[in-house]
């Protein structure tokens, strides 16, 4: 009888120890997953095209103005290090054909909407995770709209798929809010057709334009 009692007591102790071990393991796993997976940022972004062009018939190059725009982005963290970011912003640019056989030609203005999706890797420089640099790369699809044609009858821009590279950092103010600095380079080209029939009957000028803008932004963000 005494052996049975001792056996039951031993089994009970083993069961309690096993349950406690499982409970501790569950708590550790839960703790490791306790991080905010979403964040949103609002930035002020300077857009600086690094433009060039191959212009048919009249030769020359292109000049595209800089812009200052607001930008909104949303980031989802799959883990504490790997994330995906969707970047939303739109910019208006003035455009000129320059140094052509016809001199400089005002091509009016155009709005660009380049929604961009990047995959990111985030680094943590300390256990406190106050300073968090990151790098990213991805794709964008640029829409051209609200075109004003300037001195010519019309300008047509083809929507285009491009690529993006990104580097930046978040500086945490507390567990929720942070300051952000971000630099992106979009590798973006488009085919352009200029209707210059108002200058010469039937004149249509093709061009291949590389826009390749730099986007340098500073803003604030919130994790949730």
TrEMBL record:
InterPro entries hit by this protein: OMP/PagP_B-barrel, OMPW
Domain of life: Bacteria
Lineage start: Bacteria, Pseudomonadati, Bacteroidota, Flavobacteriia, Flavobacteriales
Pfam families assigned: OmpW
Gene3D superfamilies: 2.40.160.20
GO cellular component, one term: outer membrane
Name used for this protein in its record: Outer membrane protein
Signal sequence range: 1-21
Keywords per UniProt: Signal
GO biological process: transmembrane transport
